[in-house]
Amino acid sequence: MEIQIQRIGLFRPGKNPRSCTLSLDMDWKIDYTDFGNNSVGYIFYGESGSGIPLKFKLEGKIVLEDSEKLPGNLSELLIDLGLNIMVGLFNISRDRTITVQNELLSIDEFQGKVKNLEV
């Protein structure tokens, strides 16, 4: 069995609300679609019930080997996969403060730095 991901959507507030945490106490559902000979489509939806308002959507396909049947714990596997991806995306998309130092260089200094980078 192969679980493929075709689309990922993370819908979060523009700014992180202060003093909120990401709660994994979520409402979720999985819709199974496109039942083919050796594949099944799925859409996983998740929405946080408390803490930071967050919505998540994962779309994909499950490809089965010849005469393989869907496992009984398929929903559990998709929930685990979806929540892990959601937490990872949430962490890399949070607000971060980045300071940029502006250096003024002469053309000769800039060309010297570029030459040092060439392989």
Topology pattern, helix = H, strand = E = EEEEHH
Question: Overall mean pLDDT score?
Answer: 79
Rg, please? 22 Å
Alpha-carbon distance between the termini? 44 Å
> Which term fits the overall shape?
flat
Kindly state the number of beta strands: 4
Number of helices: 2
Query: Largest beta sheet: what is the strand line-up?
Result: 1-4-3-2
For the sheet with most strands, the description reads: 4 strands, antiparallel
Strand content: 25-35%
Low-confidence parts: none
Record the SSE blueprint.
Elements: E1 2-11, E2 26-33, E3 39-48, E4 55-63, H1 74-92, H2 107-117
Antiparallel strand pairs: 1-4, 2-3, 3-4
Characterise this structure.
This protein is of the alpha+beta class and 119 residues long. The chain has helices at residues 74-92, 107-117, and strands spanning 2-11, 26-33, 39-48, 55-63. The longest helix is centred in the C-terminal third of the chain and has 19 residues, at 74-92. 9% of the residues are buried.
Features:
alpha+beta, 4 strands, 31% strand, 119 residues
Question: How would you briefly describe this protein structure?
Answer:
The protein is an alpha+beta fold and 119 residues long. It is built from two helices and four strands, in the order E-E-E-E-H-H.
